[in-house]
From TrEMBL:
This is Citrate synthase. Signal peptide: none annotated. It catalyses: oxaloacetate + acetyl-CoA + H2O = citrate + CoA + H(+). It comes from the Bacteria. SUPFAM superfamilies: Citrate synthase (SSF48256). Pathway: Carbohydrate metabolism; tricarboxylic acid cycle; isocitrate from oxaloacetate: step 1/2. Keywords: Acyltransferase, Transferase, Tricarboxylic acid cycle. Belongs to the citrate synthase family. InterPro entries: Citrate_synth-like_lrg_a-sub, Citrate_synth-like_sm_a-sub, Citrate_synthase, Citrate_synthase_AS, Citrate_synthase_bac-typ, Citrate_synthase_sf, Citrate_synthase_typ-I.
Length: 388
């Protein structure tokens, strides 16, 4: 025993078979169920993409109406969630609250569920997609000291979320269609990405037969790290620290210096070695959204200069490091008045569609068995415990 293939970071191991998302990292191709991300970004909506990821096909009009109505009617939270959120410190990080709140869904819905039943599994997936934005808004409002708000069932998914976040009692909230469209598009681009760290975590937990709420809470935990979904928050912090275009070159130099421990956040990707197709879409969108919203953000200038400086630097060229999906997303979120500590939560809302789709696929898979990697042992050989 002990002679296993050492695959640090799983760069060469397929952990499962999956029919959901396809990535060709060299060609910069990303397909959800066979459909190119560029076409989905242009022609679809996030909720339609969620249906597609879960079910494998684009919904008919009737199928979509039923799905949307189910998601809408599951958007409300049990009132006990209000008491739960009250227990968090006033400045708790929203991702910390998200982990706890999502995990706690198992305490509301687990006892009477039988995951042998495909309909119960589907219902759990719907509940997660429906309630994640409501939970996110509740966490945000707790953090800023606002009263909780109920989701408005007369609004569609993204507008319902924006309303839930920003509604002030008894004041009408003007929802900007440009903002809603931008957020919907960001959600589409973040909805799935095959076996990334958080989805692999969801699948590993799912392989043990744990309930779907526990699986998704573990996905949130994995997403939080700055090497993964936490990067969008880290990018904005980095751009603010750089501050002006004249400081860009020294940031690039620092990122090249391994001793510094500093990396350009929003740069590089495990799979994309040519370009990240999502970044390409977001880049164009950033100009348009800022322009349409009439927002001028000097950080956009810093980001553009940073991208330009890195892309002509040998260090980044040789290592095939390009801006990834998170490089520009934070600038858009900021233009939508979403604060930086909520950026990774935004990613989690979108990725929930992918997580539940992978969980459903795994639970349907007759080949599913518990994920149990081996190791290369580097510790002491057998030795006798000292007599004392
Ligand atoms: N800045 C400076 N150097 C970098 C960077 C960076 N952002 N990313 C990678 N490198 C260097 C790294 O030091 C290494 O150099 P060398 O070969 O000389 O040792 C080489 O490039 C390869 O990097 P790696 O860490 O072995 O690559 P990886 O595939 O393990 O990591 C990554 C991928 C995304 C974690 C990494 O590029 C990174 O830390 N980027 C910054 C964080 C980030 O933006 N993450 C979001 C990823 S996209 C959204 C998502 O799906 O979560």
């Amino acid at each position: 025993t002990g002679h296993f293939t050492y695959d640090n970071g799983f760069t060469a191991t397929a952990s499962c078979r999956s029919a959901i998302t396809y990535i060709d990292g060299d060609a910069g191709v990303l397909l959800y169920r066979g459909y190119p991300i560029e076409q989905l970004a242009e022609k679809s909506s996030f909720l339609e993409v969620a249906y597609l990821l879960m079910n494998g096909e684009v919904p008919s009009k009737d199928e979509f109406a039923k799905f949307e109505s189910e998601v809408t009617h599951h958007s409300m939270l049990n009132e006990r969630f209000k008491q739960f959120v009250e227990g968090f410190h006033h400045d708790a990080h929203p991702m910390a609250m998200m982990m706890g709140m999502l995990g706690s869904m198992a305490s509301f819905y687990h006892n009477n569920l039988d995951y042998e039943d495909p309909e119960q599994r589907r219902l759990a997936a719907i509940r997660l997609i429906a309630k994640v934005p409501t939970i996110a808004a509740l966490c945000y409002r707790h953090r800023i000291g606002w009263p909780s708000a109920y989701p408005r069932n007369n609004l569609e998914y993204v507008n319902r979320f924006l309303h839930n976040m920003f509604e002030v009692p008894s004041e009408p909230l003007d929802l900007n269609p440009v903002a809603a469209k931008a957020l919907d598009l960001l959600f589409i681009l973040h909805a799935d990405h095959e076996q990334n760290a958080s989805t692999s975590t969801v699948r590993l937990v799912g392989s043990t037969g744990a309930n779907p709420y526990a699986c998704v809470a573990s996905g949130v935990a994995a997403l939080w790290g700055p090497a993964h979904g936490g990067a969008n928050e880290a990018v904005l912090k980095m751009l603010e620290e750089i501050g002006t275009a004249s400081n860009v070159q020294s940031a690039v130099d620092k990122a090249k210096d391994k001793e510094s421990g500093f990396r350009l956040m929003g740069f590089g990707h495990r799979v994309y070695k040519n370009f990240d197709p999502r970044a390409k879409i977001i880049r164009e969108m950033t100009y348009k959204v800022l322009n349409d919203l009439g927002v001028q953000d000097p950080l956009l200038d810093v980001a553009m200069k940073l991208e330009e400086a890195a892309l002509k630097d040998d260090y980044f060229v040789q290592r095939k490091l390009y801006p990834n999906v998170d490089f520009y997303s934070g600038i858009i979120y900021k233009a939508l008045n979403i604060p930086a500590e909520m950026f990774t939560v935004m990613f989690a809302i979108a990725r929930t569609a992918g997580w539940v789709s992978h969980w459903l696929e795994q639970q349907n898979d007759p080949e599913n068995k518990i994920g149990r990697p081996r190791q290369v042992y580097t510790g002491a050989a057998t030795r006798d415990f000292p007599n004392r």
